[in-house]
Structure formats: structure tokens, C-alpha cells
Specification:
The complex is a heterodimer of chains A (162) and B (243). By secondary structure, chain A is an all-alpha fold. Chain A is built from 2 helices and no strands. Helices cover 88% and strands 0% of the residues of chain A. In chain A, α1 crosses α2 (148-157). Chain B contains 7 helices and 2 strands, in the order ββααααααα. In chain B, 66% of the residues lie in helices and 2% in strands. Classes of the chains: A mainly alpha (162), B mainly alpha (243). Chain B: Keywords: ATP synthesis, Cell membrane, CF(0), Hydrogen ion transport, Ion transport, Membrane, Transmembrane, Transmembrane helix, Transport.
Chain lengths: 162, 243
Amino acid sequence: MPQFDPTTFASQLFWLAVTFVLLYIVVSRFAIPRLGKVLEQRQKTVDDDLDRAQQLKAETEVAIATYEKALAEARAKAHDVLRETQDQISKAADTRNREVAHNLAVKIKEGEDRIAAARDDAMTQVKGIAAGAAVAIAQKLAGLSVDEASAQAVMTSGKETA
Amino acid sequence: MASPVAQFQVKPIFPVVPEGESLPFYAFTNSSVAMVAAVVVAAVFFWLATRKRAMVPGRWQSVGELTFEFVANMIRDNVGKEGMKYFPFIFTLFCFVFIGNMLGMLPYSFTFTSHIAVTAAMAVFIFVGVTIIGFARHGVHYLHMFFPHGAPLATAPILIPIELISYLSRPFSLSVRLFANMTVGHIMLKVLAGFVVALGAFGFIPFIVVGGITVLEFFIAALQAYVFTILTCIYLNDAINMH
């Protein structure tokens, strides 16, 4: 086999060394820097784009957060206004209720007082009339003259056998 | 019919040397032509691939980038980040062997990777280089390659010779694998192609087989370039990270 013919080894090894070194120079000085740069640039572009997208996304998120905050604030404010109004209304109603109730109570009291006074009046008058009647009856029936004061006293002391 | 091994004959082009006589080391032979052609093909390929350096690659640039990434990933996966220092060498090695194998598939061409002198020279260079890297990185500690950590001391008399032999046999297996694959493939093609003529009317049978084998040989040409490169990566990994 020609592979084992040592007369050709020196030439093969020499040209192997020459061409391999040449190819090494081509690859390391030419191919790798140029290919590496292209790949690196592409990677950089992709990364930059991704970064920008990330940034825009963050901005959008901030905008959404601001909007939502404003919305929540408006909602809270509306709620406050509503509650305040409700409070005012209920307070006014309370005051009015209390006033009316107070007035009514006063009027009821006045009426009751008047009724009590009238009753007392009537009671005293009834006692006077009864005493007078008793004196007159005593005069007519038994011929006793009883003064009105003692008759009155008897009336007030309650039952007493005549 | 010419001998099936005649295709491997190294013939001087310059200077003219009578057959059987030793060639001077500078003799430019058909083997040298193939080697120079490989360099030219690689240079033209890389020129085409990096001519435009577009953001969106064209055909040539795509192939160039794929090759670049292919070899770069091979090193990253097998050796790691530190192996990238040797990326230019590994990339050169892959291109040289791959293009050498592929040029050999052209009719009437010469396959320089089918010569043991060439593959052995590369394998020995890799072996010596890897061993130097190993000792430079780990010092005497690199000798632990031959006696793994945690193995019982009693196994040393068996383990160390085994590991030593397996380590020392690397350049042989590396060079013989490539040389044998390329040589056998080409001999097989030649013999089968000879049958096409020899069988006369039935020549179409070996002809179909030759067609199939040719496809297989293209596959082997690519595969052996890959195997040669990845084994170099594995040896380099042993030297850099130890196992």
C-alpha cells in the first residue's frame, strides 16, 4: 500500500505543516474574527431590541399603574362625597326629628298640666259643693247647723259616721 | 484494471523523481495539490461567507455561521469556556479534515486524509499538545489521570498500566480511525466500480450499489471529520478539566 511507503513521508509532512499553518492563519485571522463579529453584532441587535421592548413594557406598566391609581382616587373621592352628603342628610333629619319630638313633648306636657290643673280645680269645687250640700242637708233634715268648714274637714278626713 | 490502491499513490509533480527513490521534503505532489486545494477552498468559502456580513445572512453566510457555531458549540459542550482559547486550532482542524475528506470524494482527486503519515502527524501533534496543556495546567497532579481519585490503592498496579496504555493509545486510535475509514471506503468504491465493467450485462447491480456506497462515503467523510474533531475536544477536556 502506498500509505506505508516511507519515501513520501517527508514531503507529506512538510506540505501538511505548510498548508495547515496557512489554513490556521486563514481561519484565525480572517474567518473567525469576521464570522464572530457578525454573530456578535446580531446578538447585540437582538439583545438591544429585547432591552427596548422590556423598557417599553415597563413604561406601559407605569402608565397603567398611574391610570389605575387615578381611577382608584376618583372612586374614593366619589365615595367620600357620597358618604358626606349622606351624613349631612341624616344629621339634618336627626335634628329635625329631635326638634319635632321635643316640641311635641313640650306640648303634651303643657296639655297634661292643664288637664291636671282643671281636675284639681274641679275636685276642689266638687268638695265645696258637696260640703255646701251636706250642710244644707244637715240643716234641713236634722236641724243641725254645721258650719261649712267642719263639713269640709269631714269630707277630706274620709268616711265618718254621722 | 489499475490496482484499487493505486489511487493512494503519492506522485511528485515537481521535482521529477524516478519511482522508488525518496522524495525530497519539499517535493510538490498530488497530495500537496489536494492540501493546497483544501486551503484554497476554505479561504474562498470563508470569503464568500463573510463578504457581506449581513444582519440577515444569505446562503453562504448561513453555512459559514452554522459551521462556526457547530465547532464553537462542540468546544463549549465538551470542554467548556476555557476551551475557547483553542477554538482557532480546532476550527482549523475540522475544516482541514472535512474539506480534505470531501475533496477526496471527487473523481480522480487525491484524499490526503487517507494517508497514515498525515493523520498520524495530526494525531501526534494533538496528543503532544494536549499532554503539554495538561501538565502546564495541573503540574505533577496531571499524573492523576492514570490513577483516578477514590480508587483503592491496591488496584494501582492494574489500574495505572491500563490507564497509561489507554492514554498512550490515543494518537494511534485517532490517526488509524481516520486513515482506515478513508482508505477502506475508497478501496471499496474502486473495487465495486471495477465489478460494473467486469459483470458486463449485469453491471447495473454493482452500479446501483456504488451509487449507494458513494452516498455512504460522503456521510462517512463528514462523520469522520466530526469524530476527529470531537475526540480532540474530549482529549482537550481531559487536559483542561481532568476527569
